[in-house]
Amino acid sequence: MPQDRVGEIGPFKIRLAKVTDATGTREFAHDFRSQVTKEKVTLLTGGDNPPILYEIPCTYTALGQPETVHLTSAGRDASTKRPPARRALDHRIEYTLNQHNQLASVKSLAGEFVYGYDANNPMLLTKMTGPVNEVETTYEPHRNLITGVTNKSLTEHAERVAGAQQRQRHEGTKGGVVSSYTYSNDVLGRRESISQGGEAFGMLKLGENKIDVAYNDRSEVTGAVYRSVSRSGQGSHYEGTGRFEFEAAHGRNRQ
């Protein structure tokens, strides 16, 4: 718990200005909307070591939406005679918005992430494209219910060849499905089945699988049947591997 709090009192608002605890202090600056425009952190390092200083300035759009967050390391305490520490961190995050004031992209040290929305219903997120993967989400045509989520790889896997300073590319991995989820919903909007697949489930030795869900007349889950897919010369079929039943009255379940 903070040992000290200093508040700025204004008409109908109280803004937190400073917090002091066992780890150090954090000081806040605000704009006219009472949004934090800068956080200054003094981190105690213990003993006679000088504290480490961090600053996190933030900027906003004219409508008050986040625009940038910039985390910087300010070195050692200037009150000491020791030379300042080398700048350890400089991480800037930038946000952009679309015409509907929705998040359109995020750019950071990890790369740029771009977000796309349904043309007919801009409230529905349909695609996220990052530096190495792309996630697509599909919905029912007349209900805002998710029918599928697919995570695809956009890069080729690479690894060093033993004894050589060059990379060997593995063909066939670009654009591969890392994970996929397919959902079916009943007339009440309840999720009837969940199908899972992709390379990630193969790595976990789970393979493709499907889960069927049962409900009672109060829409409480009363059972779930887990099935794994089995490949054969005539195609794929599901084999039952487990059943779970729940006692809705007491929230208990048995396998």
Explain what the structure shows:
β17 (209-215) and β18 (221-232) form a beta hairpin. The strands form 2 sheets. The chain has an 18-stranded antiparallel sheet. It has a two-stranded antiparallel sheet with strand order 13-14. Helix content is 2%, strand content 58%. Among the domains are: 1-97, Lipocalin (Beta Barrel), CATH 2.40.128; 208-255, no CATH class. It has 255 residues and is mainly beta. The protein is elongated. It has 1 helix and 20 strands. It starts with a strand and ends with a strand. The chain has one helix spanning 199-203; strands spanning 4-10, 13-21, 24-30, 36-43, 52-60, 66-76, 90-97, 103-108, 111-117, 125-129, 133-139, 146-153, 158-160, 167-169, 177-185, 191-197, 209-215, 221-232, 235-247, 252-254.
Write the layout of secondary structure elements.
Layout: E1 4-10, E2 13-21, E3 24-30, E4 36-43, E5 52-60, E6 66-76, E7 90-97, E8 103-108, E9 111-117, E10 125-129, E11 133-139, E12 146-153, E13 158-160, E14 167-169, E15 177-185, E16 191-197, H1 199-203, E17 209-215, E18 221-232, E19 235-247, E20 252-254
Antiparallel strand pairs: 1-2, 2-3, 3-4, 4-5, 5-6, 6-7, 7-8, 8-9, 9-10, 10-11, 11-12, 12-15, 13-14, 15-16, 16-17, 17-18, 18-19, 19-20
